[in-house]
Amino acid sequence: MSNKERRENRTERLFATILLLQNRPNMTSRDLAEHFSVSRRTVFRDLNALTESGVPLTYSEGGGYEILEGYQLPPLMLSAREAATLLVGTEFMKLQSDASLREDADAVALKIRAVLPREIREYVDRLRENTVLDPYWLHAVQEGGSESGRWYKLSEAVARSRKVTMEYFVESRSELTKRYVDPLGLVYYTDHWNLIAYDHLRKDVRNFRLDRIREMFVLTERFERPDGFDLAAYLEELGLDSEMKNVHLRFKEDDYGRARMEIPARIEREEKSPAGVDVQFRFSNLDYIASWLLRYGEGVEVVEPDELKSRHLKAARGIAAIYEG
Q1: Which of 51, 71, 126, 135 could disulfide-link to 159, CB 3.0 to 4.6 Å?
Q2: Pick from 248, 310, 302: which is nearest to 279 by CA?
Q3: Residue 113 CB: number of other CB atoms within 10 A?
Q4: Phi first, then psi: what are they for 74, rounded to 5°?
């Protein structure tokens, strides 16, 4: 372990010691050594460093260490980017089916918010109001995609109401267009991030996929949000993506238990029959679904759309050709 790593580990341990003694007073040096898996000598050095830094440590009558009541940690120092990262993590966990995860995530978010400086706290609140996560996005996360880094720039533009110029590829026309937009919110749905923005070219609120943005610049020029605009209501009323397709699959019952946990979309219909388990959902990237279905082999059949049937068959034939060759 390098000296830098040792210093970072010690800093984390000192911070954790403060939190631990505030929540579990009267811990002895032996208790602390066992908790952190270090020697008692290391514990004494840590406690001395905390005292020298101004933490009011005392040895209680009960025979352990505690921090005098009223001591507060200084405000949590996070950059706007770090705060945005925490937002994504806690908001995603609050969408899980496990109630305990939702409760823990909500508690963590409240604690973090309580110790953030006012400016960063207000930034996080604005971003939370204008960000929507689909609860199944994790299945499709890809490293190093073309949209890498753009989320942070656009999240700042959303939170600070900054105009954006960009070169955007319109796939239906195979055309690269220049757009001047007012970013209103960010949404992750199925397998890609989307920017919801007022498009000055079309004079309307439009959806832009981040992976189709070729170049973009956040301007210093500010804009006023449309009066009464609500991101969640907009998505519910108009739908997120005009490219969404209805997908109907039929799984063998023995295979569906595993598949259900991995379906990368919100299930809209689920029904058992003698033929198996029918499931329906909406998805835009049929190539992704065709590839994903291969893991279930003969345990799944595409009922519709025909376009997905063709892609699934093509993918299966491609694999068969490898071995036939």
Answers
A1: 126
A2: 248
A3: 18
A4: -65, 160
DSSP string covering 204-230:
EEEEEEGGGEEEEEEEEEE-PPPTT--
SS3 325: coil
Q: pLDDT tens, position by position, for the chain (325 residues)? A: 667 667 767 877 888 888 788 777 788 989 999 988 899 999 999 989 888 888 888 887 777 888 887 776 666 667 777 777 777 778 777 765 556 667 777 777 777 777 777 788 788 888 878 877 664 444 444 444 445 578 888 988 999 999 999 999 988 788 999 999 999 998 876 557 889 999 999 999 998 988 899 999 999 999 999 888 888 778 766 655 556 788 999 999 888 888 887 787 778 889 998 889 999 988 877 888 898 899 899 999 999 999 999 999 998 898 888 888 6
- Evaluate whether the domain defined by 3-67 bears CATH number 1.10.10.10: yes
Q: How far apart are CA 68 and CA 93, in angstroms?
A: 34
Q: Which tokens sit at 187?
A: 């949404």
Instruction: Tell the CATH topology of 245-324.
Output: Alpha-Beta Plaits (3.30.70)
Q: Strand, helix or coil at 99?
A: helix
- C-alpha span between 52 and 44 (Å, rounded): 12
pTM of the predicted protein model: 0.50
Are residues 163 and 176 in contact, defined by beta-carbon separation less than 8 angstroms? no
Taking the CA atoms of the chain, what radius of gyration do you get in angstroms? Answer: 26
| Six token digits for residue 73 | 């940690």
Residues 245 and 282: beta-carbon distance below 8 Å: yes
Amino acid at 302: V
CA angle at residue 132 from 222 to 149, to 5 degrees? 65
Q: Crossing angle, helix 118-129 and helix 99-115, to 10 degrees?
A: 140
Report whether 17 contacts 46 (CB < 8 A).
yes
Cis peptide before 305 (omega within 30 of 0): yes
Question: Domain residue spans in the chain?
Answer: 3-67, 77-129, 133-241, 245-324
